[in-house]
Write a structure and sequence with these properties.
By secondary structure, the protein is mainly alpha-helical. It has 7 helices and 3 strands, in the order ββαααααβαα. Strand 1 and strand 2 form a beta hairpin. InterPro entries: Kinesin-like_fam, Kinesin_motor_dom, Kinesin_motor_dom_sf, P-loop_NTPase.
Length: 202
Amino acid sequence: MAKKKKKMVKKMLDGSIKRSKLNFGDLAGSEDVAKALGPNPDPERLKEAISINASLTALTTAISYLAKSQRPSYRSSALTHILQDSLGGNSKTTMIVNSSPHIMNRPETIRTFRFAQTAKTVKNKARVNKELTRAQMLQRIQELESENASLIAKNAELVSCLEENGLEAPTQSSSTDNNNNNNNDEKTKDKKKHYRNKKAHL
């Protein structure tokens, strides 16, 4: 695999720093060893082809996991480890696949299209890599603390309003008790139904 990487750092007027990284990768294609190398392949070429196919298999597996919103094992292959940021990281990725229209290469073309179809379903949510200054971070903390205090005050106001109207404010424990009671009611109904069916059968 041939890969080029370029990192960029930009300092904004407000003092914050934005970091970005641009990756270009050229992957080798999968090979049918018997078709590509013949009946008596060179040992070095054979070893290289097997290594390429193993790496591409690991890449296909990683993309299949990402398509299912699961985290793959990027360290299962050097290729997936290198492409980790581009595959499932904070990035926007464009993948171009090459295929052959020749009838002789039909199996490889079908596999390539299926791989591309799976890769197309992977969705990354890229966000700006912005490093705030100390003053900006302190300001953000103050904003969050103020928002938290406001929510606590609103919650206390709602509880007070409920108590004034003779209602009891719901709590997490009471919600759990209600769920348990509902489950017990369902179990009781199931038992009664079971006994009725058993009695009718007798």
